[in-house]
């Protein structure tokens, strides 16, 4: 069952993306048109103050059924289904977002990439499958056990040779990379999907590591919709805890002249940053 809501929350104390608790009623978007001469039923966003087309769980399910699941690589499907049994499944990248990452990597001809926050590896495998045979991913996570759950599937897919997994907190690893001038401006694509309270710290570092014209993707930047919720709205502690950090990041990125940005409402929101200087 697909869940959409104003914001999501969950029991995880980690950086998980979890269940929706609050659902706004969808406006009735059917309306009569043509000056009342013909009662034509239009389905659209005519009654909404915005232009998002994603109005229902059924619409998201339609996207999955029609465009995502039929094209999902068999190894990604296996990894997704394995992860669905994990108690922290809600941290996993959804398959439509995996498809987006794959498309972006191919469109940009990415070869040298980085991922911060691996979990069982759905976005990692999406990346590994999208890269050319000699492509590389520097993947970081504090928890190797999560990565090892997905590793046999990644190996079976024949793409494990592209992955250099490093266990540990990402910040010191990034600082280590920055000591070598050769690493600066050398990454084509960087996906950040770990501890949200460090996203600005990551940004200060990865902006130097990505090449000019390269892309950084920050995940969960809509934070279950909580970024637009009133501060006194009911939210889980975990949402409340990270929300100021996500808000701060979004504000910072909105004004950072070193990047062009694009906020996409895919998954829990992904902000793409293209380095321009
Ligand atoms: N991209 C993953 C996927 O496709 O399933 C989901 C990543 S999950 C939302 C966040 C991950 O970040 C967890 O696996 C967690 O162990 C990791 N993490 C949390 N804090 C971290 C840190 N300081 N450095 C590196 N990884 C961290
Ligand atoms: Ca995420």
UniProtKB/TrEMBL annotation:
CDD domains: AdoMet_MTases (cd02440). The keyword S-adenosyl-L-methionine applies. The keyword Calcium does not apply. SUPFAM superfamilies: S-adenosyl-L-methionine-dependent methyltransferases. Keywords: Metal-binding, Methyltransferase, S-adenosyl-L-methionine, Transferase. One of its GO terms (biological process) is methylation. InterPro entries: Cation-dep_OMT (IPR050362), SAM-dependent_MTases_sf (IPR029063), SAM_O-MeTrfase (IPR002935). It holds the Pfam family Methyltransf_3. GO terms for molecular function: metal ion binding; O-methyltransferase activity; S-adenosylmethionine-dependent methyltransferase activity. Methylates caffeoyl-CoA to feruloyl-CoA and 5-hydroxyferuloyl-CoA to sinapoyl-CoA. Plays a role in the synthesis of feruloylated polysaccharides. Involved in the reinforcement of the plant cell wall. Also involved in the responding to wounding or pathogen challenge by the increased formation of cell wall-bound ferulic acid polymers. PANTHER family: CAFFEOYL-COA 3-O-METHYLTRANSFERASE, O-METHYLTRANSFERASE-RELATED. Belongs to the class I-like SAM-binding methyltransferase superfamily. Cation-dependent O-methyltransferase family. This is Caffeoyl-CoA O-methyltransferase. It comes from Clitoria ternatea.
